[in-house]
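Lay summary. Proteins are chains of building blocks that fold into shapes, and those shapes determine what they do. In this project we predict the shape from the chain. Here is one chain we studied, written as its sequence of building blocks.
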Amino acid sequence: MKSSSLTAEIFAIGNELLLGEVVDTNTSWLCRLLAGLGGRVRRAVLLPDDVEVIRSELAGALQRRPDLLITTGGLGPTEDDRTLIAVALATGRPLDEHPQALQMVAARYQALAATGYVASPELTPPRRKMALLPQGAMPLANPVGVAPGVLLPLEHTTLICLPGVPEEMKAIVQGSLVPYLQSRFGKAGFAELRMLVDCGDESRLAPLLEEIQYQWPQVYIKSRARAFGPGVRLRIYLSAAGSTSEEAQALIEEARRRLEERLAEAGIASEILSRD
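And here is the predicted shape, written in a compact code that computers can read:
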């Protein structure tokens, strides 16, 4: 399997997301990470802390067989942290106390108690709950919080469960998960470019972008309109994945050169905002 063909789905879990109390920034961060590795996120969903809803969505995703299925949220010590219960039901992998996960939880509470952040390091039932993992899962160290992440290889899909707190999620990914992702994706590259054009009418840009997209199907091209008017300048975003960063960048540059030519022919000025 080529690295660029790897697919992913992301489920962000938490009532607070659906109530609008918390903005889900985890999904966009993970999408950019996976795109940068050459992957493709084909579905992302917000879900409540409801075991049956989560179970049903997980079961549906597993039938679609993405290479990676990532959840964020619902790994903590409280009763409404139910993600792993739903994982157990969806996969038929009962929850067991994982010795290594329990060791991670115990070490974190020892450290927190030593600094006075918690009164006692005792492994109470709510704390031990965070060490209950589906059978066959591996814990991922959480250097910022307490609840370990979870890596569960299944027949067609690898299921990854991460905390919902962004700092914890990012720390686990960057510390424990990136080496695994790199081993799955192999060598991969990603490039993106942002342009600004002197055009306040997105419908005028549409046929030009469609033409470039047809010529370079490997490049994702999207205009982003925020308003109409003679003084409005619209943004155009281009991105591509390749077997190397150089290959991805070359695709972007080819599409960008032709797009600039077509814009100039249409009397539309443009400039490059950034390359990443």
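What the prediction tells us: Residues 205 and 213 are 12 Å apart (CA to CA).
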